[in-house]
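We treat protein structure as text, and this decision shapes the records that our systems exchange. Because each token names a local backbone shape, the row as a whole describes the fold. For reference, a complete record is included directly beneath this paragraph.
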Amino acid sequence: MKTNMKKLTTDQPAIYQIRVPGVLSKGWSDWSMKMEVNVEITDKSSPVTTLTGKLDQAALQGLLRHLYSRGIPLISVVWVD
């Protein structure tokens, strides 16, 4: 049986999910290449914003640099197959 695994490359876009603590405004989707912005707020923990979208490696690094320059720490960056 063959397994179909996608190969992650530097020149093809892929879907990424980036989680950061706190609340980022919906305006981030304009700056961050039309990424979906979701904020999770629960009674028991601090809010977490999740950015999800299709980016190539250069755009991903640019977005991560932008978050860093704003002093926003990362919780996780995940490639969504």
Remarks:
- The chain has a mean pLDDT of 86.
- The CA atoms of residues 3 and 81 lie 13 Å apart.
